[in-house]
Amino acid sequence: MIEQKRHLVTEIPGPASRARLDRKKTFVADGVGTMLPVFVTEAGGGILRDVDGNSLIDLGSGIAVTTVGNSAPAVVCNVQRQVEAFTHTCFMITPYDGYVDVCEQLAELTPGDHAKKSALFNSGAEAVENAVKIARVATGRDAVAVFDHAYHGRTNLTMAMTAKNMPYKQGFGPFAGEVYRAPVSYPFRDGLTGEQAAARAIDHLDKQVGAGNLACLAIEPILGEGGFVVPAPGFLPALAEWCRAHGIVLVADEIQSGFCRTGDWFACDDEGVVPDLVTTAKGIAGGLPLAAVTGRAELMDSVHTGGLGGTYGGNPVACAAALGAIEEMRTHDLAARARGIGATMRSRLAALAQDHPVIADIRGRGAMMAIELCTPGPDGPEPDAARAAAVNAACHRNGVVTLTCGTWGNVFRFLPPLSIPDDLLQEAFDVVAEAFATTA
Ligand SMILES: Cc1ncc(COP(=O)(O)O)c(C=O)c1O
Question: What is the pLDDT of residue 122?
């Protein structure tokens, strides 16, 4: 395992990374942005090492992917074994055990004890698209309900489902039709109870779409890119009840919040919400590309044979990685570890907020924690994206990989790998504190 120590030998990014960035500019499309251009050579535990020999603390997990850590032992072992055996057959042509094993694990781990089946894909957006396909076939309806601040991906249908224009949608239309957006529960900004916020969303959808026209309602149980907004208690259960009453398929997009990130296997577990379909990706496979739709067996089976699939979906190497990642989560009780990391982060952020009133809200669950930066304004809190950018840059300069998010770009999100040692986590928050103290 790479040494678990922050150590900077050059400025960030260093000369070797800067030279590579010039090459990137020549050969990689400008549309593919890079937040922190240090070129990585090695990673594990809570450390990323770059080509200049700098060791940075990772508070992002490659956007909630390396939940079990980079190159986690069971992932490496399974992948190596699988690569030597075979790399691809296409499950739709000649099947293999790994795919079925992953689907069996998903049936066991996702919320609810009903009969479940899964289909595997490559990316989160692909999983969301397929959840909509399944819901449409199962219900014979077209309309899709999504929420303010939602993020579901960058393909055509998922761009329509995603709320934020820049950078995800600008210039890429026309978008898919029959997608309707409702107000979400955002306790910091709306001050509503979960029940009140659900009544508002239901009224909006009833009036503007009609419950009987909705194939599905897709929701992130904790919003991801939209700002780590945790809906007020009661919001999700009330929506689930309404969906049940009107035959609307409830799709929980757990792509960012799933697989131990929030201190449970899935964020829906917190309130005992049982979705009809769950989409997963990111943390499922320790860094290899894998995604899934898991749901009620009768819903999943409503699609004709050949209607779901894709050349690489459920690739054997990615499945082997997922089985390794799940083994790591079970063996090390990573849900409990996420709760411990969450408690540490929350107490560090609460102390920081005492000194920096710009930290207007602290929210999240487990190892999915965020702060929203605002200044007081005449009509309520004014997003302070400039301060978020300044603090983010200061963290990067000092060797901590932090991420921002949120509709206004003013939310700092913390998503450390669950393999990060305690002392490294504390040190990372010392750096965050210093970044707040040295920026204005
Ligand atoms: C909640 C959610 N859904 C869908 C996606 C899209 O996943 P992918 O980037 O793998 O297509 C993301 C990615 O950030 C996400 O956070």
Answer: 98
CA of 259 to the centre of ligand 1 (A): 14
Which amino acid does the sequence have at 398? N
Would you say the pTM of this structure is higher than 0.85? yes
Residue 1 has pLDDT above 90, yes or no: no
Ligand 1 centroid distance, CA of 256 (Å)? 7
Give the DSSP H or E segment for 383. strand 380-383
Residue 240 CA to residue 273 CA, distance in Å, equals 7
- Cα 374 to ligand 1 centroid, rounded to whole Å: 26
Q: How many CB atoms lie within 10 A of CB 327?
A: 18
DSSP string, 134-149: HHHHHHS--EEEEETT
Each residue of 243-262: pLDDT tens digit? 999 999 999 999 999 999 99
| Ligand 1 atom 16: residue of nearest CA | 256
Per residue in 193-238, pLDDT (tens digit) is 999 999 999 999 999 999 999 999 999 999 999 999 999 999 999 9
- CA 83 to chain CA centroid, Å, is 27
Q: Measured at the alpha carbon of residue 102, what is the angle toward residues 147 and 47, in degrees to the nearest 5?
A: 75
Hey, which residues does 179 pair with through a beta bridge?
Answer: 144
> Residues 343-354: what's their mean pLDDT?
98
Quick one: the chain helix, strand, coil %, rounded to 5?
A: 40, 20, 40
**What's the chain's average pLDDT?**
98
Provide the H-helix boundaries in 140-208. Answer: 156-161, 187-190, 194-208
Distance 406 CA to ligand 1 centre (A): 14
b/e sequence 281-304, b meaning 16+ C-beta within 10 Å: bbbbbbbbbbbbbbbbeebbebbe
Other C-beta atoms within 10 Å of 73: how many?
15
Q: Report the 10 Å Cβ neighbour count for 156.
A: 15
Residues with CB under 6 A from ligand 1: 63, 123-125, 128, 151-153, 220, 224-225, 253, 255-256, 281
Q: Evaluate if residue 440 carries a pLDDT over 90.
A: no
pLDDT category at 3 given cuts 50, 70, 90 is: very high
Between the alpha carbon of residue 285 and those of residues 65, 122, 258, 335, 344, the distances in Å are 8, 11, 12, 16, 26
